[in-house]
């Protein structure tokens, strides 16, 4: 079996490389950032902040490659995706190990991260049917109209730290299979597993210049958002940065989608299946240490379900906090010491603002990993909407509980929250579920499902403060996002056809 190492290894140390015009190269930059294992604080590698010349070279390579790539038959593009999905499957376990080391999530969750991205690659293998245009015969006498879904040119993707496999795979496979070329800017906090996937894409046959990678932070992102040769930007990350990217790239005439932060609620009705509901709440709130954009942050207990809180806490207490690679771990570390300090600050604010701290994960000890960024499962009861723990995205293993009397109150509460990423409802009543799905103003709704991330045949959605731009990053909407519709209206004359003379009206007839 072939190995993956060109993308991130040198003889001396593990460092993320740039990918420019098919070559994995060491950056000339003087600015580097350490990549740190969040369970141990061990420096496991370093990442360059690419120079302006390097970013320009990556965009130029993508621009040059576009002319040939867009003419490459789509079966050839699909076959590369078919090969890529095979290679990812083959290397999933070794990528998961690197992902866990640099990101902290458990090995099982790292494999899930890769699997959810892999499903997008599988979907990209059927681009032949997804990219079809429309044809309508006879729109006027002898006139037909049809559409082409043509690639845009050079597209760019900017990704967050929490899904270093899935989110890059939401973007570049769909973009390039549609005939675009791509410049990817992975998260600087955990780029190594992303680079392994990129290397597999090159091994699968992605030609030089079609996929390029630059690393960095704000300066590199701003260059991508303003460069004239980039036609579209797909961003996933926090609301603050996503809003900046959306505005900056939009001002420079680009098509933009920003998938941003969240504060996800789950509504628990008293008629719900209690055991299933409580298990789902605990998994969704504390899995991946709460660092999912679809993590559960707020449980809204309706009426009599208020009496289930003690059992919820008892279940959360059983979760094992440990390094992600250790067996039976439920909660790994958060990504950085800075992220941990932020989570602890928010927990303290909840205490000071008067929420009832039922389970306190602040002083969790993990033998053998005393320096890790661990926070145990934390639960606040009787929170209110004025509190910071309710208003801010915590991005840590903290669940906030609010009590209301009716479904209508729950819906009003959630619709008043600025975020609109995901929501869940637990009930055994179809009528309640139908009312909820109709009235709730949230992009992704789960009915007895806590983290309703859509499979790739649909698209990732999100509303209000969680998303800017109309189209999602994978699924049918990604094909729309990465192509532009050209509408052709045609008429062919018979040699002996009689002319109807000059017509100065707008009508085709
Ligand atoms: P982040 O916004 O800090 O970083 C995202 C990307 O933006 C990174 O590549 C980073 O290098 C770059 N960046 C950081 N600061 C920048 C700046 N000032 N200017 C320009 N670029 C900058 O996000 P993160 O902490 O890596 O990821 C967590 C966030 O992402 C959470 O808010 C989470 O909800 C969100 N997220 C959303 C979705 C979704 O689909 N809605 C999915 C995953 C994560």
UniProtKB/TrEMBL annotation:
InterPro entries, per the entry: Ald_DH/histidinol_DH (IPR016161), Ald_DH_C (IPR016163), Ald_DH_CS_CYS (IPR016160), Ald_DH_N (IPR016162), Aldehyde_DH_dom (IPR015590), MeMal-semiAld_DH (IPR010061)
Q: What class of enzyme is it?
A: oxidoreductase
Family stated for the protein in its record: Belongs to the aldehyde dehydrogenase family.
Query: In the UniProt record, does the keyword Oxidoreductase occur?
Result: yes
Can you name this protein? Answer: methylmalonate-semialdehyde dehydrogenase (CoA acylating)
Q: Name one Pfam family in it.
A: Aldedh
Q: Which GO terms describe its molecular function?
A: methylmalonate-semialdehyde dehydrogenase (acylating, NAD) activity
Biological process (GO) annotations? L-valine catabolic process; thymine catabolic process
UniProt-listed Enzyme Commission number(s): 1.2.1.27
Q: Which CDD domains match?
A: ALDH_F6_MMSDH (cd07085)
Give the matching Gene3D superfamilies. Aldehyde Dehydrogenase, Chain A, domain 1 (3.40.605.10), Aldehyde Dehydrogenase, Chain A, domain 2 (3.40.309.10)
Does Translocase count among this protein's keywords? no
Q: Where is the Aldehyde dehydrogenase domain?
A: 24-488
According to the UniProt entry, the coiled-coil residues are none
Please report the organism this UniProt entry assigns to the protein. Answer: Acinetobacter albensis
Q: Which UniProt keywords apply?
A: NAD, Oxidoreductase
Q: Which domain of life is it from?
A: Bacteria
């Amino acid at each position: 079996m072939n190995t993956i190492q060109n993308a991130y290894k040198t003889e001396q140390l593990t460092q993320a490389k740039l990918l420019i015009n098919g070559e994995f190269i060491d950056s000339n930059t003087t600015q580097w950032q350490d990549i740190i294992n969040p369970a141990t604080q061990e420096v496991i590698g370093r990442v360059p902040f690419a120079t302006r010349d390097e970013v320009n070279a990556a965009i130029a390579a993508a621009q040059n490659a576009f002319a040939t790539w867009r003419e490459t038959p789509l079966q050839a593009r699909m076959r590369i995706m078919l090969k890529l999905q095979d290679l990812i499957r083959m290397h999933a376990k070794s990528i998961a190990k690197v992902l866990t080391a640099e990101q902290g999530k458990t090995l099982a969750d790292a494999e899930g991260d890769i699997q959810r991205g892999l499903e997008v690659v599988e979907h990209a293998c059927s681009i032949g049917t997804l990219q079809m245009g429309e044809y309508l015969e006879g729109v006027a006498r002898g006139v037909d109209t049809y559409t082409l879904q043509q690639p845009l040119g050079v597209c760019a993707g900017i990704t967050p730290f929490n899904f270093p496999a899935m989110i890059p795979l939401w973007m570049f496979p769909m973009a390039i299979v549609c005939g675009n070329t791509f410049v990817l800017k992975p998260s600087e906090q955990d780029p190594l597993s992303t680079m392994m996937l990129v290397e597999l894409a090159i091994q699968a046959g992605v030609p030089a210049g079609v996929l390029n990678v630059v690393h960095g932070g704000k300066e590199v992102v701003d260059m991508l958002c303003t460069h004239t040769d980039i036609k579209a930007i797909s961003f996933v990350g926090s609301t603050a940065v996503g809003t900046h990217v959306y505005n900056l790239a939009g001002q420079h005439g680009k098509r933009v989608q920003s998938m941003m932060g969240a504060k996800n609620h789950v509504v628990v009705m008293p008629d719900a299946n209690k055991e299933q509901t409580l298990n789902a709440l605990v998994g969704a709130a504390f899995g991946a240490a709460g660092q999912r954009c679809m993590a559960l942050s707020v449980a809204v207990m309706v009426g009599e379900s208020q009496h289930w809180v003690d059992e919820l806490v008892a279940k959360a207490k059983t979760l094992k906090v440990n390094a992600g690679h250790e067996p039976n771990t439920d909660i790994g570390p958060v990504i950085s010491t800075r992220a941990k300090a932020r989570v602890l600050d928010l927990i303290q604010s909840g205490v000071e603002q008067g929420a009832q701290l039922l389970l306190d994960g602040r002083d969790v000890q993990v033998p053998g990993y005393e320096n890790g960024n661990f926070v145990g499962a934390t639960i606040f009861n009787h929170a209110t909407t004025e509190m910071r723990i309710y208003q801010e995205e915590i991005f840590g293993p903290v669940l906030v509980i609010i009590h209301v009397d009716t479904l209508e109150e729950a819906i009003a509460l959630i619709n008043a929250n600025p975020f609109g990423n995901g929501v869940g409802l637990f009930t055994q009543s179809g009528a309640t579920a139908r009312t909820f799905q109709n009235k709730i103003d949230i992009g992704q709704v789960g009915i007895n499902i806590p983290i309703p991330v859509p499979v790739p045949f649909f698209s990732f959605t999100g509303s209000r403060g969680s998303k800017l731009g109309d189209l999602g990053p994978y699924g049918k909407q990604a094909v729309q996002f990465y192509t532009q519709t050209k509408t052709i209206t045609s008429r062919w004359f018979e040699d002996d056809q009689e002319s109807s003379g000059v017509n100065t009206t707008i009508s085709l007839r």
